[in-house]
Give the backbone structure.
Amino acid sequence: MDVNGAGLDTWEGCSVERWRTRWGVPELHVFRQVASTNDVARRRAEAGAPDGAVVLADEQTAGRGRRGRVWVADPRQALLLSVLYRVQEPSGALPLRVGLAVADTVDGAIPFVCQVKWPNDILAGSRKIAGVLCESASASDGGWMVAGVGLNVLQTRSDFPPELRDTATSIAAEAGRPVDRADIAGRLVAALTTLTDPAGPLSPGELDRLRRRDALCGRRIAVDGTVGRAEGLAPDGALRLRLDDGRLRHLYAGTVRLLHQTSEQP
Ligand code: BTN
């Protein structure tokens, strides 16, 4: 939890209640510092918080990425937020749907089109600008999903740790000008809380939008050592991977490595 044990009453010059009504969300918790917004959102889910509840923090002390990786961001440089979705059944389509919402939001602020890289990255050019971590639980009376988004907003190149400088970027770095974090937060929350069917299969329209943003389609890749050519995404969120022997595999999780030559091995 927040070091002071409670959420903030004001954030970026306005009361949190004012942001809540402006953003039209049923519940908004804003923290100066938490371990992970996904953890707070999970606790809110277990305590009965409504669909569309949002948790936002200026800093995380134990931000998580996929597969046990850490997610680091200096205080007040990024948007670190989690949205709670009450769903019938958790679904693998949510990370890509959230990726689309993040990409739509970022597109309005930088001079080019973001790409979505299965399963959970949003790229600006070849650099990662945001990541999505979805966590869920099923229950007989309906489950929940939490979508956590880490979106780099204000960082300059030198703000990133040396090992990330060549692969990470932010909205301000791409836009070449300062941007308003609260304005981006409002747009992002609006995009995330107006999804019509968060856990449903990806619609033909969403698949079409993903096709136009797909960072992998047509590329030769290795997914945890399995090599093939990416052939787009399936309605359930799977990556379609055409193996060298012609078989098509649907993958539901994995870490992707781009292979640059036909002969390159994983
Ligand atoms: C990834 O790229 O592996 C996913 C990164 C997700 C980071 C966000 S920041 C807000 C939310 N809270 C977390 O602990 N993780 C997600």
